[in-house]
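User: ok so my PI wants both of these folded by tonight, can you help

Assistant: No problem, let's get them done. Here's the first:
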Amino acid sequence: MSEKNLTIIASKGTLDWAYPPFILSSTAAALGYNVTIFFTFYGLQLLKKDLNLSVSPLGNPGMPMPMSMDKWFPVLGTAIPGMQTMMTGMMKNTIKSKGVASVAELRDLCLEADVKMIGCQMTIDLFDMKHEDLIDEIDLGGAATWLDQASDSDINLFI
């Protein structure tokens, strides 16, 4: 049986969007897949040494709200200053109380499982990011780097 390969493009950098690429990657690696994640645009936030991720209830109608707020609290109310901080805190507490691993723990698990992580050099340049703000265990590359990985992959995902 030949090796299986999974490539993922991670393009979002919020707390809720950090989980899918790391959960799928760590699971695939545990199942013997060779895994590559290409972090581009806002997904590069997931490679920062300091993971200060938040979740935005604004424009996220599928987000479950505490105390059934989604039934009585207007969507526009989620734009009130401080709501993002409050909702992020509530989400982090829920994650912790349910025993779900943190994003940092999942990222470390992926690194331990030899998941290859590529930061998009063009995006780093575009947003004037500093390489020293990113974790050391990554490679840098562009679309051609990802395409080279993806062309040999059994599964390609865009998250």
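One down. Here's the second:
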Amino acid sequence: MANIDFAALLCSRLCHDLVSPVGAINNGLEVLQDEQEASMREAVLDLIEKSTHQTSNKLQFFRLAFGAAGGFSAQLDVRECEKAMRSFLSGSRVELDWQIDLTSAPKSLVKILMNVGLIVSESLIRGGKLRISTQRSGDEVTVLVVGEGQRVILQKPVRDAMEGVLAEEDLDPRAAPAFLAHSVAQETGGKIVVEALGETNIVVKATCVLPAKSGGE
């Protein structure tokens, strides 16, 4: 797939996720122009504040998951990744259990864990627990993402894109993060597999081969 076509899919996905909170801000501002009742204005301002935080949280998350955060730096602060993930999930019914003790990591590893984390969190359609952990053996890092909840649904195109078996012509914005995670893992010499998928749980294992002399200890 041409880079420009895939970039367009990611942009579509980004816009889809931002249109609701940004739209709420716009609607709230329009109401404030004519609303005089104090209690109503207070409620609208509260909505605007919450939507603003939600928009900011999503942008910070997608900057790390999709973008070129950190410029040309080879390493990113993993603590910022955790912060972005927690902020992204705030207000949802998904509880994050972050079990990563790395202090820094290459962009490739960050993109894998952020996008796989996004995919698994979205599969917990009624909420639940999202656990993200890593193990390192030599230059290979294994990212294990486990989701547990009352109902788990992983759509087949998303799974196929994440495991690298989806035809490019079938790729859509919904599956773009999965395709990105697969592509990054593949470029490093790793892969992503769904190790378990049931009605109440999902386990995704991603491997990433780090560049020589990479940090992250």
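The chain has a mean pLDDT of 92. Helices lie at 3-34, 38-65, 78-89, 107-123, 156-163, 176-188. Good luck tonight!
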